[in-house]
Design brief:
The complex is a heterodimer. Chain A is mostly helical. Chain A contains eight helices and no strands. Chain B is α+β, with helices and mostly antiparallel strands. The longest helix of chain B has 19 residues. The chains are: A mainly alpha, B alpha+beta. At the A-B interface, helix 1, helix 2, helix 4, helix 5 and helix 7 of A face helix 1 and helix 2 of B.
Chain lengths: 192, 301
């Protein structure tokens, strides 16, 4: 890669942060459970990324690099209990369905449910269904096997169903229905 | 947040995760904060080379904390306790202890040199003196008790030696005064391993400002709660502790309050063990119990 000027690197980094930091902040809040800690986590990782930015090959996807740092740093915090998590035994009454005026209450309820999951289950669900990563990549990030990812996914969904109810986390449809659903056009997830 | 059950749990989880991360603060300037943290870290790194071995651990924690943002309360307190426990310091100690049948209180001043593992505490108003040398603490026996202590009724030793530490059954040794909190190094060790550390707000004293933290520590027999003041240089300035014994089954329930103030960091004063001929070993709790039983039988006759 050609040598880039300091100003150019700074501008590249700033552009990356403006473009992608919000998405990673959302990932972080799903991992940590609150926005304050999520911001701390993302800032911590962005500082590391900023330091590494001049050495990053242009072929390296900074999103992947940052995502790995988020997972590892959060795991490190969790292990050392720097950010003490206080899982709740039960979830408070969730906001009413279609309550568009209280988005925060809904989000908080779901984050509390995520907080009850084990850290591994939570990370697995976030990486699989928010980051849309394939199981092999999740396994690589978490340092486990694909089979373990499947197990965490299954148990994590089951636990969410117990906490939030089958209305919000329904049982898996039968294989026939699943096939029909998957064949429908325009049903893919719009991630923007 | 309605879901179409026909689309299965995975789709539902996707929607839930979207909803759970869609209420964030709208005006977060992450880039500004990242640059600020980066500059702080770069400013700190050169100073590492100028520090001695003693401060390295605490500074390493501080440096790491700078990279990772504001260090958590537990890490700040642990780093402060570590740093303080490695430097020389003077202390002022106020203690009170209450059991079902006794109540004591007193104050002492002292100086500790962790590098040499020595220390001295002298009770104010003519109170007892303790000298800490290595793993042994020597306690001067009050004149009125010389020759009358359980386990040593005849030798009349002016000093009693015992292992430094915090033996179980300490409540039975109350004849020697309040021992539970008479070792600031031990207190710092407790603080270092304390849990549930919470920042409580600002704190200040003579020539320093800092923050106050609350903490808790429990083990099989004891429950310790308290606050610790850490100055802006990362040193412990004040400890307020309440130690409660939960050993009610053996009649050892006691509550000890202690306030320890630290200052004059880096001070070094020599502390010598008393002459060997003036020192007796502390009798074991079993020996003291036998002595008390013998004394009790003798007085009933």
């Amino acid at each position: 890669m050609g040598r880039r000027s300091t100003e150019g690197l700074d501008a590249e980094f700033a552009a990356f942060v403006h473009r992608r930091a919000r998405h990673h902040l959302r990932t972080a809040v799903l991992l940590t459970g609150d926005w304050h800690t999520a911001e701390d986590l993302v800032q911590t990782c962005l500082v590391k990324l900023y330091r590494a930015w001049p050495r990053l090959d242009t072929g390296v996807d900074p999103d992947s690099y940052l995502r790995r740092m988020l997972i590892n740093t959060h795991r490190s915090w969790w292990r050392t209990r720097w950010r003490r998590e206080a899982p709740v035994a039960s979830i408070p009454d969730r906001a009413g369905e279609a309550d568009g005026q209280d988005r925060h209450a809904v989000a908080e309820t779901v984050r509390q449910a995520l907080g009850v999951l084990s850290a591994r289950q939570r990370a697995t669900l976030v990486l699989r269904f928010f980051e849309d990563l394939p199981e092999a990549q999740v396994a690589d990030l978490l340092g486990c096997s694909v089979g373990t990812v499947k197990t965490h996914t299954h148990r994590g969904i089951r636990r969410l169903r117990e906490l939030l109810g089958a209305e919000l986390v329904p049982e898996a449809p039968g294989p026939e229905l699943d096939q029909v659903v998957n064949q429908l056009p325009g049903r893919g997830r719009d991630r923007g | 947040m309605s879901q179409d059950p026909g689309r299965g749990p995975e789709h539902a989880v996707r929607a839930l995760l979207e909803a759970a991360s869609d209420d964030g603060p709208p005006t977060t300037d992450l880039l500004h904060e990242v640059r600020r943290r980066f500059r702080r870290r770069r400013a700190l790194v050169p100073s590492l080379a100028t520090l001695g071995v003693v401060g390295v651990l605490a500074v390493a924690v501080a440096a790491a904390s700078t990279v990772t943002g504001t260090p958590p309360a537990q890490a700040r307190v642990a780093a402060a306790a570590t740093r303080t426990a490695q430097e020389g310091y003077r202390v002022h100690l106020t203690t009170s202890k209450s059991t079902a049948s006794h109540r004591f209180s007193g104050t002492a001043v002292g100086v500790f040199d962790p590098a040499r593992r020595t220390g001295r505490l002298v009770g104010e108003d003519g109170g007892p003196e303790s000298r800490y040398v290595g793993d042994v603490v020597y306690r001067r026996v009050p004149a009125r008790l010389i020759g009358r202590l359980p386990g040593d009724p005849k030798r009349a030793c002016p000093w009693i030696a015992q292992e430094r530490g915090f033996p179980e059954g300490i409540s039975e040794l109350a004849e020697f005064g309040i021992r539970a909190m008479q070792d600031p190094q031990q207190a710092l060790n407790w603080v270092r391993s304390a849990g549930e550390v919470r920042e409580q707000g600002r704190a200040s004293g003579d020539g320093w400002v800092g923050l106050r933290y609350s903490f808790k520590l429990t083990d099989r027999l004891w429950r310790i709660t308290g606050t610790v003041d850490v100055d802006n240089d990362g040193r412990v300035r004040r400890l307020d502790l309440t130690v409660r014994s939960t050993d009610t089954a053996n009649g050892l329930a006691a509550t000890v309050h202690a306030a320890v103030q630290f200052w004059d960091f880096g001070v070094r004063e020599p502390v010598m063990a008393p002459p060997a001929g003036q020192v007796c070993r502390m009798p074991t709790p079993e020996a003291m119990k036998r002595e008390r039983e013998r004394f009790s039988k003798a007085t009933r006759r």
